[in-house]
Design brief:
By secondary structure, the protein is α/β, with parallel strands linked by helices. Helix content is 38%, strand content 18%. The chain is built from 10 helices and 10 strands. The strands form 2 sheets. An 8-stranded mixed β-sheet has the order 1-10-6-9-5-2-3-4, with helices on both faces. Strands 7-8 form a two-stranded antiparallel ribbon.
C-alpha cells in the first residue's frame, strides 16, 4: 500500500475496502489461461493523438490473436481529430471509428460510442496520449475481472512524472478528485488514481450505469459502481509509471470543474 493511500485510511480509522491484486497474481500467461469463452474489446478514445496512438496500439500486439489471445478486438474512437490519429491507428492494426467534428460529449461520449460498436463482454479502456503504454497493461487490467466474478471495475494506479521529477503529475486528481471522494464518498477515498483512463469493466455494468459526458466519465463510473455494487467490487492494479503530456492550467481548470460537478451531482442522490 502506498504512503498516500495508507494515510488516507489512517485518518478515517477504516481499512480500505478496495481490492488489491499482487503482480504475481496477474502474470500474463496465468490470465490468458483463465480467459475461457470471454470476449475482450479494447477501446481507445482519442483526439489529436497522432504522436502516440500508433505506439499505444502496437504495444497491444503481444495479446492479439497471434499472441496470447487475450484481446479479441481493438477499436480507436477518433473524436474529430485534425491530425493523422485515425491513419496511424489503422496502420498499427486497430479498427477506427471516426466521429465527424469532435462530438459535444467529449471523452465520455467517445467511450460510450466505442462500447456500442464492440462486442466484448469484458471491456478495457486505454488513453491514446500515453507515451509508454506496455503490453503488461492488458493482463493486469483484465486479471481481476477474470479471477473474481465479484469485481465489476478495475482502476489502474501508477507513478506520474512531472517536469523532470519522478512524481507530481495528476494535479486534477490530487486537487479535485481525491478531495471530493474524501468528503463525499469516503469509502472510495483510497482509490489512488480515480481519474485513470486505464480501466476495465464488464459490459453488463455499463448496461446498468450510464457513462457520463466529457471528463466527468471516470469519476462518475467509479462512484456509480461503488454505489451500486459496493467498494469491494472495485479493484486496483499497479501499471508502474505512466508518461503522457501534461496539460496547462488553462485546460486543467475546466477539467477539475467537471470532476467536481460529477461528484456533487451524485452526492445529492446519496442516501443520508
Amino acid at each position: 500500500m502506498s504512503t498516500d493511500t495508507a494515510s488516507t485510511w489512517q485518518a478515517t480509522g477504516q481499512p480500505s475496502a478496495i481490492r488489491q491484486f499482487g503482480l504475481d497474481e496477474l502474470d500474463a500467461s496465468r490470465i490468458a489461461a483463465v480467459k475461457g469463452v470471454h470476449q475482450v474489446s479494447v477501446i481507445i478514445p482519442a483526439k489529436d493523438e497522432a504522436a502516440t496512438i500508433g505506439a499505444v496500439v502496437t504495444a497491444l500486439a503481444p495479446h492479439g490473436p497471434q499472441g496470447s489471445g487475450l484481446i479479441d478486438e481493438i477499436l480507436v474512437v477518433d473524436d474529430g481529430s485534425r491530425d493523422a490519429t485515425a491513419a496511424r491507428a489503422r496502420a498499427a492494426g486497430a479498427t477506427v471509428l471516426s466521429l465527424p467534428g469532435g462530438g459535444s460529449g467529449g471523452k465520455g461520449a467517445a467511450m460510450a460510442i466505442g462500447v456500442d460498436a464492440t462486442r466484448g463482454d469484458l471491456l478495457v479502456f486505454l488513453d491514446g496520449d500515453v507515451e509508454n503504454t506496455q503490453d503488461h497493461f492488458i493482463p493486469r487490467l483484465l486479471g481481476p475481472l477474470l479471477l473474481d466474478a465479484n469485481v465489476m471495475l478495475v482502476k489502474a494506479y501508477y507513478e506520474r512524472p512531472f517536469e523532470g521529477e519522478s512524481t507530481g503529475g495528476g494535479r486534477v486528481t490530487e486537487l479535485s478528485a481525491r478531495p471530493a471522494l474524501r468528503l463525499l464518498f469516503p469509502e472510495l477515498a483510497a482509490v489512488r488514481q480515480p481519474l485513470a483512463g486505464e480501466t476495465a469493466t464488464r459490459r453488463h455494468v455499463l448496461a446498468a450505469v450510464d457513462l457520463d459526458q466529457g471528463y466527468r466519465v471516470e469519476i462518475g463510473l467509479l462512484i456509480d459502481v461503488g454505489t451500486r455494487w459496493g467498494a469491494r467490487s472495485i479493484a486496483e492494479v499497479d501499471l508502474g509509471v505512466r508518461i503522457h503530456r501534461n496539460r496547462p492550467l488553462t485546460e486543467l481548470g475546466p477539467m477539475a470543474t467537471e470532476v467536481l460537478a460529477a461528484a456533487l451531482a451524485r452526492s445529492r442522490h446519496r442516501a443520508p
